């Protein structure tokens, strides 16, 4: 074996993944008749897009044969795909994906700005245009705008407030619109929650249309709505605030079910059951539940077969 061949063999052994990736790329190029950057020819349009140092110049839209409405629709669909699929904004910068679009419709693909910054700008434009449509819907509603909100903690420990609007539109149809997913800063006091809620209502220009507000049955939400309604109307009476404060039925039902299952001290009962589970005291946990009567026995009937199935698989 000559010295050059031996040196090449050593390089392949040291970094085989790089050579495999290069070989795979060359196979794809050959299969789809794509000219690599070092061998690009003027007659091969797709080769331009696969060169990292050369991007095709986008012609002016008014000089293109593609209708503006079609270009706009493709832009919106592209943004919708990014948001709905939860993929990076750089997804359309991938050279093979770009080449795929050029193969379908080269002229149309040239009209679409695929960079992450372009997608970001397009997202902002779409949000602003759709927000105007929602504002018009809210302004022409046949009913008051009823609000529901809740707090959620994200996996990275950020507090998020979700706010929905519920109303009957001018055509008589029931509508629900997400108004905000706003990060809740500071402590979760009623005053802070009220401030966030009031800012969202002002943003959507519905201050004079707010009807009832639905939220979880916790005292901080009582305080929140007391402050919130007073920001809307300083002359409002406490009785009117109480009448407009709606309790979340799902939350109330959950509290009723927990009281029915566990009695007054539900947290202590659940804690003891969790401790039994962590210590592997299955029989003791079954007796613990059986002491709650028919409901506890039903719990054991449902849970024991699943536990035995887990033990058999183990």
UniProtKB/TrEMBL annotation:
<keyword id="KW-0863">Zinc-finger</keyword>
<dbReference type="InterPro" id="IPR052035">
    <property type="entry name" value="ZnF_BED_domain_contain"/>
</dbReference>
<keyword id="KW-0539">Nucleus</keyword>
<protein>
    <recommendedName>
        <fullName>HAT C-terminal dimerisation domain-containing protein</fullName>
    </recommendedName>
</protein>
<dbReference type="InterPro" id="IPR012337">
    <property type="entry name" value="RNaseH-like_sf"/>
</dbReference>
<keyword id="KW-0479">Metal-binding</keyword>
<dbReference type="GO" id="GO:0008270">
    <property type="term" value="F:zinc ion binding"/>
</dbReference>
<feature type="region of interest" description="Disordered">
    <location>
        <begin position="36"/>
        <end position="60"/>
    </location>
</feature>
<dbReference type="GO" id="GO:0005634">
    <property type="term" value="C:nucleus"/>
</dbReference>
<keyword id="KW-0862">Zinc</keyword>
<feature type="compositionally biased region" description="Low complexity">
    <location>
        <begin position="36"/>
        <end position="45"/>
    </location>
</feature>
